[in-house]
Amino acid sequence: MASYRLLSYQSPTGPRSAIALEDKVHDLERATGRADYGSILGVLADWSAARPALETLAGGLRGDSGMPLAEVRVLAPVLYPPAIYCAGANYSDHTANMAKLHNLPVDPDPRGSGKKPWHFIKASRCTVGPGVTVALPSEKLDWEVELAVVIGATARDIPVERALDVVAAYTAANDLSARDLSRRPGVADASPFKYDWIGQKCFDGACPMGPWLVPASQVGDPQQLALRLWVNDTLRQDSNTGRMIFNVAEQIAYLSSRITLYPGDVILTGTPAGVGAETGVFLARGDSVRISIEKIGELVTSIA
């Protein structure tokens, strides 16, 4: 089976989808003759049929054809996800550090006592692609490298044992967070209305994602992937997806018990220790953030 990646790119007429083999990119609508494959969402909506068709296509494309990848403006791979679900507190080292920061007791058993995964929602229009410059929205802008799961089938009440069957692909994401906008001024700390999730998580450019989608069949076990993040070439996060508290399958199963998942939905699966909030070091204008996830690739974002 030929290895390939799926991406969105900027054409003269607007965003389009493509299949990439090594350093060449092929427009998907032209390569398949399918108008609905002109967008990644169209491909994902037909994933059960698209997957074998793309494998056949990848095996038949000539290496000397297509557009040079280096000359293509790559966009966020999914424009725009129907929903982005973000796992909070899903690496034990990160949750322990954050508990200490807020003078809270460290949970010795984060999976115990019937605890379930916990997610919040990020606005889909926050997604931006590789090489994009994000305007600094606050004085405490933080970074979070995360494995992103892209759904390829409608799923409701799916059991853990079959949860990975609905995954079309994986990509990398940086869940940027404006920490100093997380709490509403003038509202008591004990109030249930204290937190501002829009301000903290949903500003323009808050979800760099990409550079492309790697089919689940090429990634294999999502719990064995190294993930790292650098700020200006200084390594800040260095972990492995095997350290998640709730794994990918458990997150999909739990989310599907609460709401129907649809093709194109994205799940950010949590971030490990090493975020800026743990040390009080945050992003500044002129900084560059580079994330890397094994078998997926690198994504670079600049801060203006």
Notes on the structure:
With 304 residues, the chain is α+β, with helices and mostly antiparallel strands. The chain has two domains: 71 residues, no CATH class; 220 residues, Fumarylacetoacetase-like, C-terminal domain (Fumarylacetoacetate hydrolase, domain 2, Alpha-Beta Complex). The chain has seven helices and 19 strands. The strands form four sheets. Strands 7-6-17-11-12-14-8 form a seven-stranded mixed sheet. Strands 4-3-2-1-5 form a five-stranded antiparallel sheet. The protein is globular. The N and C termini lie far apart (42 Å).
Radius of gyration: 19 Å
Approximate helicity band: 10-25%
Count of individual beta strands: 19
**Uncertain regions: pLDDT < 50 for 5+ in a row?**
none
CATH superfamily of the largest domain: Fumarylacetoacetase-like, C-terminal domain
The biggest sheet, with number of strands, parallel, antiparallel or mixed sense and barrel status, is: 7 strands, mixed
Which strand order do you get reading across the main beta sheet? Answer: 7-6-17-11-12-14-8
Terminal CA distance: 42 Å
Mean pLDDT: 95
